[in-house]
């Protein structure tokens, strides 16, 4: 710097308010309302000042400019109305905030839900801070964004260099230390950015203990729970048919291959007449983890179970896609679940991996016995805590596109709920037939894809269920579980 030259001036920090990008302003019969998807927020009849504020927010403006606009239109007393409107919009999830240093946009806080927690007093960011263990930094649309399932907002980082600054918060640090590594940003601006991150539940005070309720959640479980429930979901929610213009829907029934083994069709009237009562089945149901390999399950029994639990009873069309009817309830009648019997021991069925064709009621051979099927069988045996491999493992897959083509945000959660429905249906039918049913708590989806030749992202396992002939009396120590 030459003698007598003025020191460089620090850019002025500003904060711009704007309506969220997916919001629309609608005025009908003098009533102004904000609309986003299926959510509407009537603001009532607005005077000239507040109507001008809403219009200005559609384009984005600074709060000081909104104050000036309001006072100019209605006088000093209108400032209170402005603050009340801004609080309402903020708590309703309608406002985004952009922090800038001079002409350099740094970060924008975007709402993703419409129930924003009440704003707490200004966060204290003068001490030592640390990144939340459930914070997530990722790329989206060419931008870097950081979010937390603890809140209904996310923060978009306009300057990729700020990602490195956020990463430094993996270790406890403070604003002064961060300012030393952020060229062009003074401590005041750093604190404003930290306050935005703190108000978005992305950072916390170092050493502050988590509430007991939060401490029990893993990152993946909490993220899945938050993003698959309305309010903290990303994008639309429910049956939006969001891929209708992007791809053709999958058919209601997976196109069958060659049926290796036609299964006998049970006489429903006869077998239903001999079934125990529904109440008796519910009371008798147990998870039985011991099979009688001297008298294994038969092809007729396996066929009856599959027919009564999972066959296609009919196909229809709702104007968007093919739907089907099956014995168990399915969300939106999409019926994305498929059953792959992995046979170790079944009278009348050779060992191997099969696919059950619910339309033709037969088994299609998918894989011969070998290392991939042995690995899958071992997963079933170990998960069930059995001494020998299960007679039959029913590997439950999902054709994800059947659900994800229609449903948004909640699609995978819906699939897992339907796995539970399938479990209960197999339990009840297996119990009524005096077989040994047992749902398993997990499995290896990659191992299934290796054995069946499926694409992991198009169809793979989401549940496992074993079935066989009972090896002990229900409730005794020879194989009946407590479940």
List keywords for this structure.
483 residues; alpha+beta; Outer Surface Protein A, domain 3; NADH Oxidase; seven-stranded antiparallel beta sheet; 15 helices; 23 strands; 32% helix; elongated
Outline:
The protein has 483 residues and is an alpha+beta fold. The chain has 15 helices and 23 strands.
Could you explain the architecture of this structure?
The chain has 483 residues and is an alpha+beta fold. The chain has three domains: 10-101, Outer Surface Protein A, domain 3, CATH 3.90.930.60; 103-216, Outer Surface Protein A, domain 3, CATH 3.90.930.70; 238-468, 3-Layer(aba) Sandwich (NADH Oxidase), CATH 3.40.109.10. The chain has 15 helices and 23 strands. The chain has helices at residues 48-59, 63-74, 78-91, 161-168, 175-180, 187-199, 212-215, 219-227, 268-274, 278-284, 299-310, 371-384, 400-404, 411-432, 445-452, and strands at 13-19, 24-28, 31-36, 39-44, 61-62, 95-101, 104-111, 129-131, 136-140, 143-147, 153-157, 203-205, 238-239, 261-262, 314-317, 322-325, 337-343, 352-357, 362-367, 392-399, 407-408, 436-440, 459-468. The strands form six sheets. The protein has a seven-stranded antiparallel β-sheet with strand order 5-1-6-7-11-10-9. β17 (337-343) and β18 form a beta hairpin. The longest helix has 22 residues, at 411-432. It is elongated, with a radius of gyration of 30 Å. The chain starts with 12 loop residues before the first strand and ends in a 15-residue tail after the last strand. The relative contact order is 0.09.
